[in-house]
Amino acid sequence: MLKEIIIAFQSYVKAHHFITKHKLWKWILIPGILYTLLFSVGMYFFLESSSKAITWLSQLAGVGRWLHHQQSAALSFLFVMGEIMVRLVLFFFYFSLFKYLILIIGSPVFAYLSQQTQALINGKEYSFQTDQVLRDMRRGIRLAIRNSLWQTVYIISLLILSFFPLVGWITPVICIFVESYYYGFSMLDYSCQRHNLDSPASVAYIGQHKGLAIGNGLVFYGMHFIPILGWVLAPAYAVIAATISLYHQNLE
What is the DSSP letter of 248? Predict the structure, then answer.
């Protein structure tokens, strides 16, 4: 798996050179700017709503009054750490829902970019095929809905686990890998479809190559630490990098 994660990381570097060489910037910037606007608005509402939700739950449970009576530094520390873990897991849960919205809205552009990348790698002139893009788009939407349901189950389980001291502190790390896997999964599936893998076969194949999906998603999320520029570039870079990472794989 580690080898595949490294391959996925290297594919982002190759994607940058590929985009520059073939002058694909307009297909990067248009969806990227839309993504950045939606992401900024979404994060604002998340921070507002999550803070109010956690404060309300804390007051409802009477945690603050109980800690005040206990006057224990250790208990206060555990509570603060638990609150941080809950906030992080809630953030990942929100981000996962936001991510699938972007995957659905951006599926036509992502499908086009994946097709064009494959054609350019093969040294062919890309001819726009409406039927193929529509098929890729429909499949991308179905896959996004499927993955969102599965991921919601996992994230809710991790959210419950995050309330437990000590054990719950590892939940954000698990969330990162779950998030990365499912995002990379969606990016890799465009290539799987072009190799005539139906949805069950694609699920099985990517399940056997989890490192490629996790690595793709990890870099995607890592790019969000670069304000504005990283947000603009992340979505399109992810789909091009995924296409490149699968180019030499045996998908038959």
Answer: T
Q: What is the DSSP letter of 24?
A: -
Reported as half-sphere exposure (CB side, CA atoms, 13 A), residue 51 has a value of: 6
> Is residue 70 one of the residues assigned to a domain?
no
pLDDT, mean of residues 19-33: 86
Full DSSP string of 108-131 = HHHHHHHHHHHHHHTT------HH
Q: Is residue 57 part of a domain?
A: no
Tokens of 95: 């981000």
The whole-model pTM stands at 0.79
pLDDT (mean) for 102-127: 77
pLDDT computed for residue 102 by the predictor: 78
Residue 28 and residue 229: Cα distance in Å, rounded?
A: 11
Specify the amino acid at residue 1: M
Q: Give the total number of structural domains in the chain.
A: 1
| Poorest-pLDDT segment among 48-52, 65-69, 216-220 | 65-69
Q: Which domain holds residue 173?
A: 2-44+82-246
Task: Give the amino acid at 176.
Answer: I
* Other CB atoms within 10 A of residue 220 CB: 26
- Check: CB of residue 90 under 8 Å from CB of residue 127: no
- Residue 95 domain flag: yes
Backbone region of residue 126 per phi and psi (left: phi > 0; alpha: psi in -120 to 50; beta: other values): beta
What type of residue sits at position 150? W
Distances from the Cα of 130 to the Cα of 126, 134, 189, angstroms: 12, 6, 18
Question: What residues have CB less than 8 Å from 140, skipping those under 6 apart?
Answer: 103, 104, 107, 110, 111, 186, 189, 190
